[in-house]
Design goal:
alpha+beta, 8-stranded mixed β-sheet
């Protein structure tokens, strides 16, 4: 019996052919009209969306709702389960900084966090920022947090109320809770305080949503009077601003996906010009942290593919003065580093597993914080203060709830501060987590992390949600996720394929999944599905694939390459119109993305390579599985028209009867709904689709 029955007619997008010729090659795009010509203005004011486009999106939403109508009770059940695993009035363990300790908490029923501080050694909490109060009356609201000044008198806080990631900054008097008159628009969110607390630095996004300028704002002055500190003229680079732990420097961090450049502004002279550390050189990456009289520099210089840590004098930080402190070890990827008065700390990954290393700055002695499980996740929070021997880290696995520790780097003593509570109950012994390896087409061993209940029959009958990403060097941690327990408890195998394009197995793993090797990401994922089918963890008829953003490109690619191996596909904010997007240099992320994918405008080889795998370009006449695409109207990263066009063409070409669904959040952007419970409703919807498609309702 068909899973989807009595559906109304699916929306049919009109064809309005637009031709484009590049490198002597002409393509026709029947659905190019779905791209709003006024997208820059529409992101700031969604009411400006073309009525024909809005009507089509609303028709798609109505069709999607009809197709999923019989899952509404299931969605509510899933939502209740997920919400029941959340401690609704959860609170962070405050981090000590000067006379205070800072943290955040939620209230029962609240969607947004509330930020607080209390006396350093405990006492009455003062709420600095109430996210629920600020979000009142807004369909979408996302906080950028609050950053306090060095003297603890004021805080910069930011918010986005469109989903477009244009953040407005406000300045709050932390003693009274009142906002000052200062309003800073169109920022990237957050700022870096000058030590005197009378001014701060921030990034401004241009009309194409790129962080192109750093400004210096003096409290009490209008934004129009702010001094331009630095302007980045290359649209291919991202830019951010931050402060050093000792308040000696303002860092200007300029980078794309493979090249870095830092400029430093001494806080002893805020009106000076920022000084260049090491001029950008294609392929050279570095990041800096202050260590008193030296900078510690994490870099891939001199062939250190998996990175090393150098030091240089604060007075002369140029590359010619970099000397190795933690040398390069092939296969051991150093991910991040922090420096304190007596210790150097870094997070590394080797053989797919993370590790925290500590080095005594005086003696040079090193040690690691050790763990026992087969697969786990670490988070290094460090400390807010420079002169400390205590840092903070988190630990979890697919079966172990998150644990937060303070760690004394001298005595090596761990202090458990908090274990994630699961109010509805959780017994780790009921579940199994495993790390297995699938053999890729070229023999590479692809790690796959599994979670399932002990009583799940591994005879091929179990449904499976197989998740993948595989881009930008982002690794998917084997961390605790209460949401996927709702699938495991229904007999699902929850699987994460650590495909090439991430750094799960080092920097080479990333390089082997980008540019001319991008298709390895796709074939790795299919190899994971093959392995799970062969070893009877599940079967092709029971696998639902899921990925978002660049992982959505992966979903589009595997739909074209091996549609018969998946029962369903969930593609969240999917980057599926790769070629057209990389040809449109006005879009926010296009120039910065060229180092990851290639530049098809100037490079015919890159053009042809993208044309060969871009999901939208390669939709064929074949039976596609059931597909659910999700998008956000004001998404500046993966614009709404990518999944909209993809669905239109899929529906036109498929020879099968499985429905192709599109759900557009008309009040959100790339990250989906902004409230914590609203987000759970979205996950419940996705899981309901997976359960329905596999016939497990």
């Amino acid at each position: 019996m068909p899973i989807f029955q009595n559906l109304p007619a699916a929306p049919v997008a009109p064809k309005k052919p637009v031709t484009d010729t590049r490198h002597g090659i002409t393509r026709t795009d029947d659905y190019a009209w779905l791209r709003a010509d006024n997208w820059q203005a529409m992101f700031k004011d969604p009411s400006l969306l073309d009525p024909d486009i809005r009507a089509h999106l609303e028709a798609e939403n109505a069709y999607m709702k009809a197709a999923m109508a019989d899952t509404e009770a299931l969605q509510k059940t899933l939502f209740a389960e997920m919400r029941g695993r959340i401690k609704e009035d959860d609170s962070s363990i405050p981090m000590k900084d000067g006379p205070f300790a800072y943290g955040s908490f939620f209230v029962t029923g609240g969607e947004q966090p509330r930020y607080f501080r209390e006396p350093r050694e405990g006492g009455e909490r003062a709420v600095l920022l109430d996210g629920d109060k600020e979000a009142e009356g807004k369909a979408y609201f996302r906080l950028a947090g609050i950053d306090h000044s060095t003297d603890h008198a004021r805080g910069i806080w930011g918010y986005d109320d469109k989903g477009s990631e244009y953040y407005t900054l406000r300045v709050r008097d932390l003693a009274t809770g009142d906002d000052l008159a200062d309003v800073i628009e169109n920022t990237g969110g957050g700022g870096a305080w000058a030590p005197d607390g009378k001014s701060f630095f921030y990034t401004v996004l241009d009309e194409n949503h790129r962080p192109s300028k750093i400004f210096h704002h003096i409290i009490g002055e209008p934004q129009a009077n702010d001094r331009l500190v630095y302007e980045e003229e290359d649209p291919g680079f991202f830019m951010g601003v931050g402060g050093s732990a000792l308040d000696d420097f303002i860092y200007i961090d300029i980078h794309d996906h493979e090249t870095s450049e830092y400029r430093l502004l001494s806080t002893s002279d805020l009106m000076a010009e920022p000084k260049l550390v090491s001029e950008r050189e294609i392929g050279l990456e570095y990041s800096m942290t202050e260590g008193g009289d030296v900078f510690y520099i994490l870099t891939n210089a001199d062939g250190a593919k998996d990175f090393k840590i150098c030091q240089a004098p604060v007075s002369a930080p140029g590359r010619e003065n970099w000397t190795d402190v933690v040398p390069h070890t092939p296969g051991r990827l150093i991910i991040s580093h922090m420096a304190y008065a007596r210790h150097l700390v870094w997070l590394e990954r080797e053989n797919g597993l993370p590790q925290i290393k500590i080095r005594d700055r005086q003696s040079g002695e090193e040690h690691a914080i050790a763990f026992d499980e087969e697969a786990f996740s670490l988070g290094l929070q460090g400390a807010a203060e420079y002169d400390t021997d205590v840092i903070r880290f988190s630990y979890s696995s697919m079966t172990t709830p998150s644990q937060l520790y303070d760690y004394n780097m001298v005595t090596r003593e761990r202090t458990l501060l908090k274990t994630q509570e699961v109010p509805s109950g959780h017994n780790p012994d009921d579940y199994v987590t495993r790390r297995v390896f699938a053999t890729a087409t070229d023999g590479a061993q692809v790690p796959v992390t599994l979670l399932y209940r002990k009583d799940t029959a591994l005879d091929g009958s179990a449904p499976c949600l197989l998740y993948g990403y595989g881009a930008y060097g982002i690794s998917i941690p084997a961390s605790f996720n209460t949401n996927c327990l709702s699938l495991a408890d229904r007999g699902f195998v929850y699987a994460v394929a650590h495909v090439r394009g991430g750094k799960d197995k080092g920097f080479q793993w990333y390089e082997d999944g980008k540019m001319e090797k991008k298709t390895n990401t796709f074939t790795d994922f299919i190899a994971a599905a093959d392995y799970l089918n062969q070893e009877q963890f599940t079967s092709y008829a029971n696998i639902v694939a899921e990925g978002g953003s660049a992982g959505g490109m992966l979903m589009g690619a595997i739909a074209n390459l091996a549609p018969e191996k998946f029962k369903g596909i969930i593609a969240a904010v999917p980057f599926v119109d790769v070629l057209n997007t990389m040809l449109d240099d006005t879009l926010p992320l296009t120039p910065p993305e060229w180092p990851e994918w290639g530049n098809p405008i100037d490079d015919k080889t890159a053009y042809e390579r993208m044309a060969a795998y871009s999901p939208y370009e390669n939709i064929g006449e074949k039976p596609y599985p059931a597909i659910l695409a999700l998008s956000g109207l004001t998404d500046p990263r993966v614009t709404y028209w990518e999944p909209t066009k993809w669905v239109a063409r899929l529906r036109e070409k498929t020879t099968g009867s499985a429905p192709i669904l599109l759900k557009t959040n008309m009040d959100a952007g790339h990250g989906g709904a902004s409230g914590r419970f609203q987000r759970l409703e979205e996950i419940a919807f996705e899981y309901a689709f997976a359960i329905k498609v596999t016939g497990k309702m």
